[in-house]
Hints:
CATH topology of chain A: Immunoglobulin-like
Mean pLDDT of chain A: 75
Structural class of chain B: mainly beta
Low-confidence stretches of chain B: none
Shape of chain B: elongated
Number of helices of chain A: 3
Strand content of chain A: 35-45%
Order of helices and strands of chain A: HHHEEEEEEEEE
Largest interface: A-B, 53 and 40 residues
CATH architecture of chain B: Sandwich
Distance between the termini of chain B: 24 Å
Shape of chain A: globular
Mean pLDDT of chain B: 84
Structural class of chain A: alpha+beta
Number of domains of chain B: 1
CATH class of chain A: Mainly Beta
CATH architecture of chain A: Sandwich
CATH superfamily of chain B: Immunoglobulins
Largest sheet of chain B: 4 strands, antiparallel
CATH superfamily of chain A: SoxY domain
CATH class of chain B: Mainly Beta
Oligomer: heterodimer
Radius of gyration of chain B: 16 Å
Number of domains of chain A: 1
Order of helices and strands of chain B: EEEEEEE
Amino acid sequence: MMNMKRRTMLKGALIASAAALTPQAVLAAWPKEGFGAKSVPEALMGTLGSDSTSPSDAIKIKAPDIAENGAVVPVTVSTTLADVTSISILASANPSPLAASFDLGAGAAGFVSTRIKMGKTGDIVAVVKSGGSLHSNRKGVKVTIGGCGG
Amino acid sequence: MASIKIRAKNKSGVTTVKCLMTHPMETGSRKNKKTGKLIPAHFIQEVTAGLNGTTVLTAHWGGGVSKNPYMSFKLNGAASGDSLKINWVDNQGNSESAEAKVK
C-alpha cells in the first residue's frame, strides 16, 4: 500500500480526474471543477466561485498536530460566524486539495466533522461562507504515513 | 445492505447528528499492486440530510474523504422524535439512504 511512487501517484491523479468527468453529468450540483483542481485557489474558484478569503479566528479547526495515519485524519470545523451557508475542507498538499464541501441549510449550525485523507504533511484549510463572503483558517498537520495509498 | 449508521441526539435544543457510511472511497489514483492497473474511482459525491423532509445539509465530497466516511453536524431547532434521513449518491450512480429518529 505504501510503496507507491510519488510520480505514479501524480500521474494517476490526472488520469482519475479525466476519467471522473464522464458520469458526473447526472449530478449537476457536484462542482467537478473544484474537485478536479490541483491547487487551493483553483478549488475555491470551482466550488465557491471566488478565491478571495479573509483570515478569521472565528473558525476553529480541530485536527491532530501529527497524524500517524494520513488515510484517516479526523477534522472538525466549527465557527461562531453568523449566517453560515457553506463550509469547505481542503488539504493543501493533496493532489486534488478539495476534500469536502458542506452546504448548510436552515437550522444547521456552523459545525461539521469528518475524516479526510492527507497524502503528505500540509495545511488543512477550512473555508466558511458567511453572509456572502468567504472566511478561512488553516492548521498544519504533520503526516507520518501518507494517506493517498489507502 | 444497510450501510449508513445514524445517531441523532438532542441536548438542550441542539441536535448532534453523527453518521457512518460504508464505502470504499477510491480516489482513482491508486494502483492494483498485482496487475499495475489503476483502481477505478469510486467515491461518494453527494450526501444529503433531511429533517422531516426538508433538506438541512448537502455535502459534496471528492476522493479526499476517508474510506468508510464519518460525518457529524449540528442542528438547531430539531426536536426529539423528528425523523432524520441521510442519503448518498456515488460517482458510479449507486445510492443508499437511511432514516433515524432524533433522540
